[in-house]
Design brief:
It contains 8 helices and no strands. It is mainly alpha-helical. The protein has one domain (5-94, 101-145). Helix 1 runs antiparallel to helix 8, helix 2 (19-29) packs antiparallel against helix 3 and helix 2 crosses helix 6 (88-111). The longest helix has 24 residues, at 88-111.
Length: 151
C-alpha cells in the first residue's frame, strides 16, 4: 500500500482492535511504525476511563469500571524513563524483555483460536466481526491515504 512508517503506525492503531496485535503489526513494519502505533493505541485506550466514567454519570449507573492495568503500568514506565534518564541502559534492557513478552503474547493469542472455538461462536458473529473489521480498516486506510487523518 506504500504507507510510510508513520502512516502504517497510525493505521494499525486505529484499525486493529487488540493492543498486542497493534504492537505486533507495528513491530513487524518497523521501529517508527511501532512507536506511532503503540503511542496512538495507548492514548486511545486511555480514553476508556473518562468515557466509561462519563457514561456511568450520564446514565446514573452504579456499574463498576474496570481499570486497564497495563495503561497504568505504561504511564509509570513513561514517568520513570523521564525522571531517571541516566538509567537508559536499564530501560533499554527492559524494552527488549517487553518486546519478547509481546511476541509470546501474540503467539498465545493466536494459539487460542481453534475450529471448536469458532464453531461455538457461530458463523454470524464471526461474519459480523470480519465485516466490521473490513469496514473500519478500509475507511481508516482511505482517510490516511487521503490525508484526512493525522499526517
Amino acid at each position: 500500500m506504500h504507507l510510510s512508517q508513520t502512516q502504517f503506525g497510525l493505521w494499525a492503531a486505529m484499525a486493529i482492535h487488540d493492543t498486542s496485535s497493534v504492537v505486533g503489526a507495528g513491530l513487524k513494519y518497523g521501529q517508527a511504525a511501532l512507536i506511532v502505533a503503540t503511542t496512538v493505541k495507548l492514548v486511545r485506550t486511555l480514553w476508556i476511563v473518562p468515557v466509561a466514567m462519563a457514561t456511568a454519570i450520564l446514565f446514573r449507573t452504579r456499574a463498576r469500571v474496570q481499570w486497564p492495568w497495563f495503561v497504568l503500568l505504561f504511564l509509570v514506565a513513561a514517568w520513570l524513563s523521564v525522571e531517571w534518564p541516566s538509567a537508559k541502559p536499564a530501560w533499554t534492557a527492559i524494552t527488549q524483555v517487553a518486546k519478547s513478552g509481546f511476541a509470546v503474547t501474540l503467539f498465545l493469542i493466536g494459539s487460542g483460536l481453534s475450529r471448536k472455538a469458532i464453531g461455538t461462536i457461530g458463523w454470524r458473529p464471526m461474519a459480523l466481526g470480519v465485516l466490521l473489521w473490513l469496514m473500519v480498516s478500509s475507511v481508516t486506510l482511505l482517510c490516511i491515504r487521503a490525508k484526512w487523518i493525522g499526517l
